[in-house]
Design brief:
By secondary structure, this protein is of the alpha/beta class. About 40% of the residues lie in helices and about 10% in strands.
Amino acid sequence: MFKVAYDPIYAHPLPEGHRFPMLKYELIPAQLLHEGLVKPDDIFSPGVLAEDIVLTTHDKDYWRQLRDLTLPLKEQRRIGFPLSARLVERELRIAKGTIDGCLSALTNRIAFNVAGGTHHAGTNWGEGFCMLNDQAIAANYLLHSNLSKSILIIDLDVHQGNGTAQIFENEPRIFTFSMHGDKNFPFRKETSDLDIPLADGVGDEEYLDILCKTLPKLISQQKPDFVFYLSGVDVLSTDKLGKLSLSKEACRERDRFVFEQCINNNVPVQVSMGGGYSPQIRDIVDAHCNTFKAAIDLYF
């Protein structure tokens, strides 16, 4: 069975008024356990990432300002969270969970992080609820440890993976692919190796048609030996920030297709859950759990 990174600190590192976006991090593993989709032994609590690994990806001065809680208020507002030691620890645990998931996926073909997908964090900035870029840190870890030579990052969150694009703009061993809402946050986009901007209101058929025509060619061209998948569910029609019009069924089909391509090409994949901002928490949790269900159907 695949491994699932989860730690209780993911859920409540914030003051009361900021907690709604965090509820899903508690509810997803609870729902997976309730439905018998995973066992308690499949879920692990990651430790705190070492500073030297953070610095393979993020600027030293930026990291020290986070660590020492001295980041200027303007930069904190850009992140969207009030800075605290618990919040920084949360980011370190998320990134460590993604690295641990990669190591598991090398053997078990797939692994999940209930949190993660912090793709708006760049080399020396955080924004959009992202402070440290978990998949970027993990991708660099694989390269520096000689565990991978060619990595594909598939970012299907509704928001462009601008931080990831910036971090790897000069790294030929990592190919960044982002398919996202054109008129959505971040309003200043970076340049991924492949960007597919989508108009507001794109629905099931058009979305899946674009993905199905793009991803197999991309994998064939790049020949990655490892894939990172950011499976945000803010593409749903119910999402208050998304501006796209996908159904839960199409979102699950999207996930199934990505996993099929990884299986067909014998490439391990690490999955971080990304965004989801539907007003009803049940819609968010159901859609994220469907990602796990799609994996279980195909891998086990």
